[in-house]
Structure to design on (464 residues):
């Protein structure tokens, strides 16, 4: 079963918000605990909002990895508001706020909360994922490849941890040595030779005032081994994610963390996994939308007239944002679709409908999706009207009792770009009862088990 983020929020009173605001600690945290003793790794993605390689890689660890020994904690979306707005930092650079910070800073609580996670006693290793400019090189080669660039490197603040950290010596005391091992591992899997990774030592304690305010240096000062991983901004997102995951897996190996990855580590496998199985639930679970490959606009979504809109999503980078009379569904820095509502009173007395799907009788609960191979029929419901959106029998207002096949639909009414998934809505005396989806996509499995690794502590990603 797909698990959802716990009751997400709510977008002010309908129609009142011209723009939107985010809560100050809008990030989510995910505890992937194998239950088997081992090291604990904390992964942070999205500290700067314009680095999709890092935040998508961290999210894939949440949605598509199973940790088999040790513990992995992931904050995939530290600067979520900036991610959505494609900004490096709406309130300045979040990675320069780890030294001293005025309590009036709008990100004070974000910093406080992530510092607490870094300082948790069992955290052995902190990995901060970035997309950096160009390609780091020890010598000047050209304007995109020189010692001032950051891309394709693993960053350490100094050669080894401070002596006081010695009691936790373990495998990550020698920072540069551990970075070297991961770099070597990444370099055995390069997509092309000029993507080569390097270790970059910022020698932060020797006067790098900027890096002294960073997350990794805060961790180091508190005896936590920490590394920055930088994929190059010169590469497309899927390639950046590829390198981030190679580096993460190399650190997992060094930490003795065993894992299972539910997709193949290729650009294509990554691109598919990023949107795989993503869903949005609305209308007190009376509406489910499969939003993998969703159309750019969905119209006449029957939302409840009164009250606030609550929604649920099953991916840590997804959220719904109201702008005027439109709801924008985001996946990180991409807007997936725009929902135009039509408002109804809801009637919750009916919970399910009876259908015949490919010859089998089925009772189907509202807010779910039904795989259909050939045909379906919605049985008549006394005093209720069934509206099969895009079903082309023009003169009929109640579409129950008809056998419906994929070719009976007008394609542009599907919710997906592929023309496979359609809405079936039920109304009684002008009140909305619920929606189900009929999904004609071939090769569907009943339960894809994606996102099943969402921990129970999966933080919410909702906003005011
Ligand atoms: Zn960065």
């Amino acid at each position: 079963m797909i698990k959802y983020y716990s009751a997400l929020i709510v977008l002010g009173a309908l129609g009142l918000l011209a723009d939107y605001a985010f809560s100050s600690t809008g990030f989510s945290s995910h505890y992937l605990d194998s239950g088997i003793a081992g090291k604990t790794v904390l992964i942070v993605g999205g500290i700067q909002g314009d680095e999709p390689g890092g935040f998508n890689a961290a999210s894939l660890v949440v949605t598509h990895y199973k940790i088999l020994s040790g513990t992995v904690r992931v904050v995939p979306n530290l600067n979520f508001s900036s991610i959505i707005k494609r900004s490096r930092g709406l309130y300045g650079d979040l990675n320069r706020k780890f030294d001293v910070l005025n309590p009036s800073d709008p990100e004070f609580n974000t910093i406080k909360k992530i510092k607490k996670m870094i300082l948790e006693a069992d955290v052995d290793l902190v990995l901060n994922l970035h997309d950096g400019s160009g390609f780091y090189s020890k010598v000047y080669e050209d304007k995109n490849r020189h010692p001032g660039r950051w891309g394709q490197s693993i960053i350490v603040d100094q050669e080894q941890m401070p002596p006081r950290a010695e009691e936790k010596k373990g495998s990550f005391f020698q920072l540069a040595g551990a970075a070297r091992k991961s770099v070597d591992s990444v370099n055995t899997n390069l997509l092309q030779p000029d993507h080569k990774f390097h270790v970059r030592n910022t020698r932060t304690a020797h006067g790098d005032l900027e890096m002294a305010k960073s997350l990794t240096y805060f961790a180091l000062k508190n005896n936590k081994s920490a590394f920055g991983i930088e994929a190059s901004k010169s590469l497309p997102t899927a390639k950046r994610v590829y390198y981030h995951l190679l580096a993460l897996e190399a650190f997992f190996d060094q930490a003795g963390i065993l894992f299972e990855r539910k997709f193949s580590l290729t650009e294509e496998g990554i691109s598919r996994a990023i949107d795989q199985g993503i869903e949005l639930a609305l209308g007190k679970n009376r509406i489910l939308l499969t939003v993998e490959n969703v159309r750019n606009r969905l119209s006449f979504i029957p939302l409840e007239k009164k009250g606030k809109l609550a929604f649920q999503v099953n991916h840590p980078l997804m959220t719904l944002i109201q702008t005027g009379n439109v709801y924008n569904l985001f996946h990180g820095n991409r807007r997936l679709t725009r929902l135009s509502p039509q408002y109804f009173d809801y009637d919750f007395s009916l919970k399910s409908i009876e259908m015949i799907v490919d010859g089998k009788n089925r009772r189907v609960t509202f807010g779910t999706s039904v795989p259909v191979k050939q045909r379906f029929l919605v049985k008549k419901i006394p005093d209720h009207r069934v509206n099969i959106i895009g079903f082309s029998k023009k003169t009929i207002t109640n579409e129950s009792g008809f056998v419906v096949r994929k070719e009976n639909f007008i394609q542009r009414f599907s919710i997906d770009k592929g023309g496979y998934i359609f809405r079936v809505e039920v109304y009684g005396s002008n009140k909305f009862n619920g929606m189900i989806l009929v999904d004609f996509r071939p090769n569907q499995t009943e339960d894809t088990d994606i996102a099943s690794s969402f921990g129970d502590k999966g933080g919410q990603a909702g906003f005011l």
